[in-house]
Specification:
It is a single chain. This protein folds into three domains: 167 residues, Penicillin-binding protein 2a (Domain 2); 286 residues, Beta-lactamase, CATH 3.40.710.10; 60 residues, Trypsin Inhibitor V, Chain A (2-Layer Sandwich), CATH 3.30.10. The protein contains 20 helices and 24 strands. The strands form seven sheets. Strands 2, 3, 4, 5, 8, 15 and 16 form a seven-stranded mixed β-sheet that branches. Strand 17 and strand 18 form a beta hairpin.
Length: 649
Amino acid sequence: MARNKTFNRRNVLIIVSVVLLAAVGLIVRLGYLMIVRSAEYAQRAEDLHERERAIKAERGTIYDKNGIAVATNKPVSTISVIHSQITDPERVIQVLSELLGLSENTVRKRVEKNSSLERIKSNVDKDIADSIREYDLDGVMVDEDYKRYYPYGSLASKVIGFTGSDNQGIIGLEVEYDNYLKGTDGTILTLTTAYGVEIDNAAEDRIEPRAGNDLYISLDVNMQKYAEQAALKIMEAKSANHVKLILMNPQNGEIYAMVNVPEFDLNNPYTFTDNMLEGIDASSLTSEQTNDLLNNMWRNACISDTYEPGSAFKIVTATAALEEKVVSLGDTFYCPGYKIVEDRRIRCHKAGGHGSETFVEGIKNSCNPVFMEVGARVGITNMYKYFGKLGLFNKTGVDLPGEAKSIMHKTENVGAVELATISFGQSFQITPLQLLVAASAVVNGGDIVTPHFGIEVKNPEGNTVKTLKQEGNTGVISKETSDTMKELLEAVIAEGTGKRAYLPGFRIGGKTATSEKLPRSSNKYISSFVGFAPANDPQVIAVILIDEPTGIYYGGTIAAPVVAEVFDNILPYLGIEPQYTEAEIKEYSVGTIKMPDLVGLSKEELKAALKEIDYGEINYLGEGDTVMEQFPLAGEMINLNSDLILYLE
């Protein structure tokens, strides 16, 4: 009996001890949680009862040279649902699918998803968002947002670029300056129950968003319009694949216009332009094919496509020869229409040849044999030295994504034939912008400029955040050579292959080019022209490329007059007024007339059509009797006594 009492007391003691130990453990644990980890659990409790929703920041505006907005914002909304707060899911699905243009299945998946916040659609127009608000649907959130808007639609589309659904930059300046343009999103913090239901009349914390900075660029809306109109007109007239045209200040590298027609609509960047789907069944395209087509439509060919520059590159060859003093202006050459280099017979564009000519005449005539001889005098080592000085081995550094590099032979792979063709712009490839930068250095006194659009970044209050300065390289060629080249290139326009770029009252310099595309047997060409004005003090320089024109394809015939047309508009706009010589006053004071449509007429019928027009000289190209093409084009205003070019079948 005594033994049982002892056993019971021991059991009681053990139980009491266990209880006491458990109590002490709980007290210690509770103290640890309440004291040591109190902050952590307080935050967890707060998180459980708070829900955070983003308030989108307004993206910065992009302004052109004159302060005109070319990329701005429209107020839109983001529609989301909170699963735990929805009381009538079928009604929510019906209303949102109808008003947002989404399938019921798509909306249902998101409504029924057990998540704290599920986005249904972004960039919803304000009127639709207001309609959704009127339904007062439990669990449906309508939050303010912004959608990028481009007031000029397709203007400079491949330069300005566009943004994605989250307002991040995709291409162009929008992505290049995204870090400046994007703002900082704000937040809305609301109190909820443990089940995620928002508490009515509870205090709401709001952190306001910070708008992005504004970007000021050198692009000029008016000059871009002039350039696009001229490029589109020649593209349509010549049934060309596309036309590229750049206008830049050769003194500081500010780009006034960069054209890639056809452009696309920035407000609908995923809608193909008409030419993109020619001969293609859109319904049969795979996603990969669609992406390829879109990337091709968005590509800025002025900086991302390389080509053989052809005779426009003779600017560089002549500059190298003058700098190395291996040629003088009075040196004479002989052109029989070709030149034999090793085992190759390389022809001149003039089949019968130019005969005896000076170096100056060789430039005016764009004579290949002259430049093959000049290139041989310079040699590949010195030729490549000036390629390097003029930036042709490097990217230009333009503030746009996707710039390509040149494609050049290695020095050790250049023989006599390669050197001959390089001297007149074949056997290598550069971008149009690289050529423009090199030509700018030749005519601006010898300084390499960095082409750019960005000028300044300002915050929403209008204060300057950053001035975007561009580095350059001075003195890459001598001022003496630069002055000589300006005179020579002005002579090309006054008396040479660039006559169709001549503008009465203005001093224009430039160089024409007609590049045969690879393979040579394709009979496909790129017609181009580089021009600058005023020739004695260049304030604007231009390059135009017309890809695969039909019919007449000579750069001097079809490309040079396009730049002349653009210059005729923009030079007075830039404050450069015409100053006529006495000879020009006498010759061009007779007035202008609209060019009639001569296409389809025979030579006999031309006499009657031109009877009332005082024209200069008619230049016939071809051996037929019927006019297939004409320059100037029908409808253009031309000076009386102007020369006409008629292409016969």
